[in-house]
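Repro:
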Amino acid sequence: MKFVIPGVNVKIFGKAVHALSKIGEELYLIADDESLSLKVFSMSMSCYACFRLLKSFFSVYEASGEGFKGKLSMRSILLAFRTVNGMEKTVEECLLEVSETCDDAVVTLKHRKGMTKRFRLPLIEYETLLFSFQTEGYSNEISGQSKLLTDVLVNFPMSVQEVTLRLSPTKLDVCNHVDDTSDPLKTVNTSVSIESSEFDEFRAAGDGGEVTFCLREFRALLGFCEGLCLNATLHFDGAGKPLLASFEGVPGLESSFVTATLADGPQSLPTTRSGSVATHRHKVPQRRPGRPDPPEPSESGAGPSGEPSIAAKKKKAMLLGLTTPDLDHFTSQLPQDDPVLVEASDDEGD
């Protein structure tokens, strides 16, 4: 088999490989008469991503009649696409070949000024994975420029592992997920709202829906979209059901992303009258004989010297978070193990 990628698409192919490498450690290659698919699964088998490259993406497309299924280590193929910035200016074409014995794949980068780089990548044992999901019938759908989602996620630090999408008939709220084990005095609740008019398509069934999913893999796909001006479409129903994302805009390329969501419904965090998250109970210290009573804090929270007390500073710091909605209405979900979307099959013919 032989696939030739022209210079204008080499960078796109390299960015796709880099995006998939942030999701899984093994790259599945599946070729047929119509397209070459690059697929990856997360280690927990709760996330799936695929780039389908049509014939029009290549300048030469030669696939065997019976098709091909193989698997490469991500570490090996990343050696060929270590640096993708500027590849469209320095690489004239990329040649991907699979030997007749299907023992290895050869990646050849033909640079300008006559320089050629060749990488021989060993194919590892391939196992058939049965994976199925519906692409239609979702009750909630939003579609718009991928840059809109990228600008929203900039407000969340890299330490945030899960986010919650809350869809209502008029807007979309993106919030960081906070479980009940987190210390409320050390947690910043962040929420960003996007009006429905900002999207090209906005469909919410009834009162909308809410899903919580892992952010790490989703960031990887948005990183691929950066600079390509792709259109992103999200489909989801409710908690516990998969979230489906697709990205379009590059001729000859189709991409899809599926991830599991938390199954538990939202649970409200206990709150105090002031609107901050419920405070901890502290033991009242025993006063030793002969020592004066500590001064009582004033209603404004100031200490004996007129400066704000430590408790007042903590409460004020909490209210200075990036939370847009009132903390009285902020909700959380209890974490559960992600459901497995993929099961291994012993029959490779399926």
